[in-house]
Write a structure and sequence with these properties.
The protein is α/β, with parallel strands linked by helices and 145 residues long. The chain has 6 helices and 4 strands.
């Protein structure tokens, strides 16, 4: 099964996956991939443009390959804000979509404390795109902060 985990930066998507995935599952997390490909001491969330390009290419390849094995393996994919095209693909694959959203105030506090200032714009864009939609209930807290 494909489980697509969405939500704004610092919402707890990676933590949600850690709480649900098993060692047999595949986890496709852009930040973890970038950290694995970066040199020693690299920041967990600030990546150079070149590293970001390389990691995006690797991510697309990983998604394509992992989706060939959904009959035997659960695949957890972090996709912060999937496009309509991506959502259509996930629907064809009968993916489960999980939105991790502890609320804008909490997310902004986390971003200010743990992320680069430009992430505030990403958070704003994420919430603006969701304006007018009913808020989905969190199945559980991603972790205790």
């Amino acid at each position: 099964m494909l489980i697509v985990v969405t939500g704004p930066p610092a919402a707890g998507k990676s933590s949600w996956i850690r709480a649900h995935a098993t060692a047999r599952d595949i986890v496709i997390d852009l930040d973890l991939m970038a950290l694995a490909m970066a040199g020693p001491g690299a920041d967990h969330h600030a990546h150079t443009d070149v590293l970001t390009r390389v990691v995006h290419r690797a991510r697309y390849a990983a998604i394509d390959e992992a989706c060939q094995h959904l009959d035997t393996t659960d695949v957890y994919l972090i996709h912060t804000q999937p496009s309509a095209k991506a959502l259509a693909k996930y629907k064809r694959l009968e993916a489960r979509i999980v939105t991790v959203d502890p609320g804008r105030d909490i997310v902004m506090q986390r971003v200010m404390a743990m992320r680069q200032p430009e992430m505030e714009r990403v958070v704003t864009r994420w919430y603006n795109a969701r304006r007018g939609r009913p808020r989905e209930a969190m199945p559980q807290a991603s972790r205790s902060w």
